[in-house]
Amino acid sequence: xxxxxxxxxxxxxxxxxIGNGASSMVFKxxxxxxxxxxxxxxxxxxxxxxxxxLNREVTTLKHLNHSNIVKLYGKETxxxxxxxxxxxxxxxxxxxxxxxxxxxxxxxxxQEFLTLFIDIASGFQYLHSNGIIHRDLKPGNxxxxxxxxxxxxxxxxxxGTSRRLENPEEEYFSLVGTEEFLHPxxxxxxxxxxxxxxxxxxxxxxxxxxxxxxxxxSSRMPFIPFDGARNDRKIM
Length: 236
Description:
Layout: E1 4-6, E2 10-20, E3 24-31, E4 37-43, H1 51-62, E5 72-77, E6 84-89, E7 93-94, H2 95-98, H3 110-129, E8 132-133, E9 142-146, E10 152-156, E11 163-164, H4 184-192, H5 203-218
Antiparallel strand pairs: 1-2, 2-3, 3-4, 4-6, 5-6, 7-9, 8-11, 9-10
């Protein structure tokens, strides 16, 4: 793979990897017209990144506009490979990687934690008021961006497992999320009692938010799966 590829709206620098997951890689890119920094999320393989999830993420983000929700600028196709590429707002790191830095190994400092809490709570309030639940909130899906005044802002990303609810009381039954951050009812159905018929609601997001805050302030997860931690990997 070449180190520099030009798409329709951005130039992607493939040797500047800023994120790498099971189904996608994120590279630094630049808007060809304005020169502004962007993030290019390259989908590795459609067989791994379900096409439904990709379309759900694009459809959801196209209708959202909030400072604490990652911005989608467009969707393109990589020349030669045909891989899908999402052009997103550029953020310097994820909360997950930020927590790995030496100064944060015992948790975020008070002011940083307060910023995280306010920003993600604001993002969630906006999502839920628009009938959207995320269903996979965790440090790896929260991005940290440095503003022009050098202060941080946190944004929610990765909407492939999100779902639109017709009303705040609507319930659902599908199993999605990451094991360490699952609501107890979801965890029980996923790993203990598959016959369980208890429905879930938007409260699953709040539970994941609480687990994320616990990890951010203490550098430890509040709950460890029976077979050990999975290093923030999505398992459903």
